[in-house]
């Protein structure tokens, strides 16, 4: 039987999950949830129930750990609900890198084709040591240094402007036109199958609309209790 503190924590967790689902993501992956049965596959915790396949990426209380060489989570059939082309969208992930990239840029999450403006990713840059949006030759630097602590990184796009957020730092925006293709969604690597993420990922979200700054802040405040 749960004691009072454990019950309060459990109720708060349920409230957060209800809130996140009420924001209607087209993909929601609370990777800290332990799946029963087949540990190599699970379904997303949203209205769509996307089937996700795990390679490595071991489970832990705060999320899944990625080894930086081969671990990933993928959706084999690209979902029709995911935004492509220049459509509005938002992508967020709680990240805890084990290393500051110095040799290659590590990709945390994304999809599309590894070609100019055709992918939509969040990556950790080896050139600058910062979190960046990756559109392939159409990138946007947050200016926030990668840490070995938990950070919420988010990218929104409204059709004309792309914005990148990290925690409660000042966001950075830039004019962008995207041409993202319907291909290769994965967590832990770039769409071309290279540059694996080394660290843990706690939650991942994708929306088919551009979140406002206020909506981003609500999600940050609602979810940070598990990580900060």
The ordered H/E elements are HEEEEEEEEEEEEEEEEH
Strand content: 35-45%
**Number of H/I helices:** 2
CATH class reads Mainly Beta
* Helix/strand class: mainly beta
> How confident is the prediction overall: mean pLDDT?
92
Query: Portion of residues in helices?
Result: 10-25%
Head-to-tail CA distance between termini: 27 Å
User: What is the 3D shape?
Assistant: globular
Number of domains: 1
Task: Give the strand tally.
Answer: 16
The profile of the biggest β sheet is: 8 strands, antiparallel
CATH architecture: Sandwich
CATH topology tier name: Jelly Rolls
Ranges where pLDDT stays below 50 over 5 or more residues in a row are 4-11
Query: Which radius of gyration do the C-alpha atoms yield?
Result: 16 Å
Textual characterization of the structure:
- The chain is mainly beta and 228 residues long.
- The chain has one domain (25-226): Sandwich (Jelly Rolls).
- It is built from 2 helices and 16 strands.
- The chain has helices at 4-22, 213-223, and strands at 27-30, 41-43, 51-55, 58-60, 63-67, 72-74, 89-97, 106-112, 119-124, 130-134, 140-145, 151-157, 161-166, 172-175, 186-187, 198-207.
- The strands form 2 sheets. Strands 1, 4, 5, 7, 12, 13, 14 and 16 form an 8-stranded antiparallel β-sheet that branches. The chain has an 8-stranded antiparallel β-sheet with strand order 2-3-6-15-8-9-10-11, with no helix packed on it.
- Strand 12 and strand 13 form a beta hairpin.
- The longest helix is centred in the N-terminal third of the chain and has 19 residues, at 4-22.
- It is globular and about 40 Å long.
- The two termini are 27 Å apart.
- Residues 4-11 have low confidence and may be disordered.
């Amino acid at each position: 039987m749960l004691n009072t503190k454990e019950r309060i924590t459990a109720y708060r967790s349920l409230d957060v999950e209800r809130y996140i689902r009420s924001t209607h993501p087209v993909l929601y992956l609370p990777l800290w949830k332990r799946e029963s049965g087949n540990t190599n596959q699970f379904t997303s915790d949203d209205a769509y129930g996307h089937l996700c396949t795990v390679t490595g990426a071991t489970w832990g209380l705060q999320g899944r750990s990625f080894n930086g060489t081969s671990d990933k989570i993928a959706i084999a059939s690209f979902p029709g609900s995911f935004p492509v082309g220049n459509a509005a969208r938002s992508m967020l992930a709680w990240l805890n890198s084990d290393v500051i990239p110095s040799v290659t840029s590590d990709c945390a999450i994304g999809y599309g084709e590894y070609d100019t403006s055709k992918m939509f990713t969040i990556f950790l840059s080896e050139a600058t040591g910062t979190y960046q949006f990756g559109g392939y030759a159409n990138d946007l630097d947050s200016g926030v240094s990668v840490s070995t602590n938990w950070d919420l990184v988010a990218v929104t796009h409204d059709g004309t402007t792309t914005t990148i957020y990290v925690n409660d730092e000042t966001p950075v925006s830039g004019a962008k036109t995207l041409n993202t293709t319907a291909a290769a969604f994965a967590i832990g690597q770039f769409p071309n199958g290279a540059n694996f993420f080394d660290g843990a990922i706690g939650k991942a979200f994708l929306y088919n609309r551009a979140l406002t700054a206020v909506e981003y802040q609500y999600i940050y405040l609602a979810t940070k209790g598990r990580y900060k």
